Amino acid sequence: MRGQIQQVGDKVSIGLATMCVIHCIVLPILFVALPFLSASFLQEEAFHQLLLGGVLLTSVLALVSGCKTHSKWHIFTFGITGLAVLSIAAFFGHDLFGEYGETILTVVGSLIVAFSHLKNIKACKAARCCSS
Questions:
Q1: Tens of pLDDT along 97-123?
Q2: Which of these, 91, 110, 114, 121, has the minimum number of CB atoms within 10 Å of its CB?
């Protein structure tokens, strides 16, 4: 059961982190091409915080589950660092660093989270291979 939670959680978290990157990079381009999007729910803080909530929940579950399998807790720490960067971007990024700073923080945080999940997947596969 723990292995299933870890696998699904890692994949969902990578998908959500990728959505964050796409949202931050592609959405401004679409705003120029399709101005009606600028008034959509995609620009609201609630959307950002909802996406962050999904990333936080799935990431913590998957990383903890994975670390219980492979005992490489530095992967968890790396993932939590990415989640912290994403949280700072979502709640304080615009006020502290402006629009571009918020985007950069979000992209960096998302990449850290996705990378930590890829490392988690690899470490779990290696641990299961060695334990059988």
A1: 998 898 899 899 999 999 999 999 999
A2: 91
